[in-house]
Design goal:
The chain has six helices and seven strands; from the N terminus they run E-H-E-H-E-E-H-E-E-H-E-H-H. Strands 1, 2, 3, 4, 5, 6 and 7 form a seven-stranded mixed β-sheet that branches. Helix 3 packs across helix 4.
């Protein structure tokens, strides 16, 4: 079971050979006052996995949450195009960190494992025209930091240090460590 609303997470798991069913969690993705980015990502991943696992009679639930951090600011999913443009201007010409929390729970809601992945991404300086073009594609709408490295925003990335699959939204090396070989 994958506790997620993210089609890109499902695509990553399928491409790695895992078989699963997607179940959306009812967890509200909101930071607590003073909560550090890594702690937030881990907590939300655990809450999502537990929420779905409590409804299972058998099997396991994998939950994940990805966020983008730039200059100490956590960037979630943009509320609208104006916020997406603001986020992309904030990322332009600088490095940021992509943090993903991953959690695995057994049926009933027992936490089996959790982990954090962190990747540094460097963006080129973006022009207003590049930002407008990308926002008009609709791609930023459901992505932390208003971009998907696996889509048109790949044109903006100068380099990464760390896990590429983490930036897409699910660090496969961590999932593989938790689950083992695909069935």
């Amino acid at each position: 079971m994958l506790a997620s609303r993210s089609p890109r997470r499902a695509e990553l798991l399928r491409s790695a050979g895992y078989r699963f069913t997607v179940r959306a969690s009812s967890v509200v993705e909101q930071a607590r006052a003073g909560e550090a980015p890594a702690a937030l990502a881990r907590r939300l991943a655990m809450e999502k996995a537990m929420d779905v696992a409590r409804r299972l009679r058998e099997g396991q639930a994998l939950g994940a949450d990805t966020l983008v951090v730039v200059g100490g600011e956590i960037l979630g999913k943009p509320a609208d195009d104006a916020e997406a443009r603001r986020m992309l201007r904030r990322l332009s010409g600088r490095e940021h960190r992509v943090v993903t929390g991953v959690a695995l729970c057994s049926a009933g809601g027992l936490l089996l494992d959790s982990a954090i992945a962190s990747t540094i991404v460097a963006f080129n300086k973006l022009s207003a025209a590049e930002i407008a073009w990308y926002v008009a594609t609709g791609d930023p709408a459901d992505k932390a930091g208003a971009y998907g490295i696996q889509g048109g925003a790949a044109l903006f990335v100068r380099g990464i240090r760390g896990s590429y699959s983490n930036v897409v939204g699910l660090p496969l090396e961590i999932v593989h460590s938790m689950l083992g070989l695909p069935p």
